[in-house]
Amino acid sequence: MPQRHVVQMSTSHASYAVCVLGTEVFLDTHRCTPKAAVSFDVYATSAVTVHIIHNPTTKPMMNSRWPLDPDIEIVVTIDVTSTAINDNKVKISYYGQEDNELSVAWLYLTCVDVSLDVDLNRNGRVKSRGKDKAKWTWGPDGQGAVLLVNCDRDSPGAVGTDSEQVDIRTTADLQDMSVMLLRTQGPSAIFAEYQVVLHITESDADKVRVFHALRDDSHPRYKPVLGPDKLSYVLDHVGSGENIFYVEGLAFPDVGFSGLVSFSASLLEVPHQVCAPSPTKSPELEFSTTTPRCISPLQNAPGTPIFTDTVVFRVAPWIMTPNTQQPLEVFVCSIQQGSDSNEAFLEGLRALLKKANCKLTVCSEVETRSDRWIQDELEFGYVEAPHKTFPVVFDSPRNRGLKDFAFKKILGPDFGYVTRESPGKEVTSLDSFGNLDVSPPVTVRGKEYPLGRILIGSPLPW
């Protein structure tokens, strides 16, 4: 639930506040209402919309004033960003029993826009100011951005996967990441007094990493700003414009992780000395240029959140491909030693795959360390997002002669790698991927499984 932005009104001095485009600002008038007042009215400049929230039995008076009622709330919204500081004004006048004006409360408002945006509609484009950005739903009519685990190796000279690197070494790596935009608009002087902070929860921080795209002397630079050891990031030199962030996944959905990750951008009011002129009672809602009043803040006081915008990504799962799909590449082990040589089999396979126009990769005995059971060692699948799809090999925990083959020979640009180890248990034959398969697309009891269903072997007897 979004926080409620409340501004304390006063009849002894003007109030000043910053609001975000389209959000509600509640005016707290309980402390400033004169004891002798029986009614009030509210006027504002043209960009401000005033909402009076009241009990159905409470009605405005004949002179358009409202009776004082403890249940009445005054809420204002602004749908146009400010071009100058304090260019929106609200005036609340209080009246006594004789219709005489007892006092006036003034509010100066500066409206800014802060919007954190992602590919909400999953069409490859980042939409500005989407609705329900903190929700993620499945299906072709659903919404919510998709994030890929950056488990391939585009970075030259890298030892492991790109997700294990804390920097970006090639622009090709950016194509595996999802774009997140932080858009801000408003008077630049306001952002010198208010902080814009990008942040993530501690429980999500080890699942993702975020890079901020910066330019130094016309050269792009990608600064890691959120991730396993960084929960928040304060933006410098914020003004009207866009800040581009690239987001990569570090962990696949698994036991204890649904795949959902949230990011938030907050506008914080930083305590500082405020100097403000005293108001006049001009019906044109203007202020005189009198001697400023200065209010000093408490030392080391934390920033006050004014507004928070939240977006949600879902990390794309590893999807296993059925063997009924058109093959692109076939991996086979070569056994040349002894009576178990498979040379005749390889010759027949070469001829068949040549007709099928399919690539054949023969793994030598040196590479496999005489382990011929490649089906037990690995399975092929893929990850997919609107902006990118690439294959991912899943390495089993059996860890025999082929245990390093997938990592050393298959992992590379646009070919990912993932593995799992048995948690605290001895590896058995059931951990071999000969016991893991997937059906073709199937319908069971009226329910469609367009990606098939995972099939898992079990020990005898059944």
Automatic annotation (TrEMBL):
Residues 306-458 form the Protein-arginine deiminase C-terminal domain. It is found in: Cytoplasm. It comes from the Eukaryota. One of its GO terms (cellular component) is nucleus. InterPro entries: Cupredoxin, PAD, PAD_C, PAD_central_sf, PAD_N, PAD_N_sf, Prot_Arg_deaminase_cen_dom. Residues 1-110 form the Protein-arginine deiminase (PAD) N-terminal domain. The keyword Transferase does not apply. Coiled coil: none annotated. Keywords: Cytoplasm. Its main location: cytoplasm. This is PADI1 deiminase. It comes from Columbina picui.
